[in-house]
Amino acid sequence: MASLALSQVRGALSPLRTTFARGFLAATLLPSAWAASKPFTLAPPSLQTLLELLPPWVLAVPKKKTSHSRKAMRSANKGLKDKQNVVACPACGTPKLAHHLCASCYSGLSRGWKSKAKEDVES
Predict the structure, then answer these.
(1) What is the domain range of residue 6?
(2) Model pTM score
(3) Is position 75 within any domain?
(4) Same domain (yes/no): 23, 59
(5) What is the rounded CA–CA span in Å between residue 86 and residue 70?
(6) Tens digits of per-residue pLDDT, 81-109?
(7) Residues 6+ apart with CB under 8 A from 104
(8) DSSP for 66-101?
């Protein structure tokens, strides 16, 4: 849809582009006497003329909708990988990640720390 609109804009702007180019060439390349006899004002380019300068791949739009099956096949290799660094905790024997705290041992330690902190506050 966007490519259709862009092609319509390009078709409508072709006379503007040639008029702009002729005036620009007349003001820069032709003798100053001829340019003085025909006054020319250089207007800043509009958004549509700037769109003509962009290559067509900048405004690229897919031709068809990507199906669910195609999306799933493309993302099939993005799944979660199995953990290879699972070891047994030396204290309690539950499985844990290597170089991480054991969840069950830590919960026991934190319960002890909290109860000790409560006793210190109460006394």
Answers:
(1) 2-63
(2) 0.35
(3) no
(4) yes
(5) 34
(6) 899 999 999 989 999 999 999 988 888 88
(7) 89, 92, 94
(8) PPHHHHHHHTGGGSPPPPS-EEE-TTT--EEETTS-
